[in-house]
Amino acid sequence: MTHPSPARRTLLLGTALAAGLVGLPALAVAQSGELNLYSSRHYDTDEALYAEFTEQTGITINRIEAGADELIERMISEGANSPADVLITVDAGRLERADEAGLFQAVDSEVLEERVPEYLQDPENKWFGFSKRARVIMYACDRVENPPRTYEALADEEWRGRLLIRSSTNIYNQSLSGAILAALGEEATEEWSRGIVANMAREPRGGDTDQIRAVAAGEGDLAVSNTYYLGNLLRSDNPEDRAVAEQICVVFPNQDDRGTHVNISGAGVAANAPNPEAAKLFLEYLASDSAQAYFAEGNSEYPVVEGVAAPEWIQRFGEFQEDDLSAETFAQNNADALMVMDRAGWK
Fold this sequence. Notes:
alpha/beta; D-Maltodextrin-Binding Protein, domain 2; 2 domains; 15 helices; 9 strands; 42% helix
């Protein structure tokens, strides 16, 4: 497997951005003013995404970065005086928390309605997904001949002491469990959670990348992770990262029934946005072909807009069927899913 060099990746990204903001002619007209962006996306590569918007529109972005929960609490405390125009964060669970706190306003946009799939947006147009990440099963290529093919199979006795997974407090796992709760019901989800606990190679610690590294180091044979973590290891400039990634194979679970759980990175216009038109324009920009290509190239994510390709190092994982359960549904299930995991002893 060969990986694009940093120079090649820069060229790919530059070409994508230069392709123009397809479907969004309004962005070609320079605007005046500013946009106050509250962001919990801590990816250095997002700098180019925001610079492209300013170049296309003339709108200056003032950015405040912090953890999602911190930003949500800040907006709540600021109330009607909040300067936030847009909140952008990862995981539908956090977007739904912000919506339940009354922090978003509905956005009337034909562009967003047409370009963002219905199941990846709030039914009342309060928030929209702009990139996807599949939560998959990863395994040691050289030690596992017949990996589990479903999320349910992760709880089978065959995998006792072999599974690496993050804490139940991690929102990615809460959303995954929320999707399983929607598919199987509470009793079966609790039984599944008990099986997950029984199969853990060690107590949960660290992030998704730590689980992948632990599989490569032989601490366990299976891990649950979002795809972009492995993608970023594959395209890393560090040969040790690439060596870890080359030991890992991927299963997209539940391909014979509901499909693989997919979560999002998304955004919404703040309820008290002082610059609502600029905020709407920014969301529409995030759905443009150039911004979608940027999400994909910049952080190894899947675009949400049909026709925009995932980067080549993500395509190596193969095509897969997505679970088209509404992101709102599994997000609203997060709290119940956490209680189920707690009862099962998932720390």
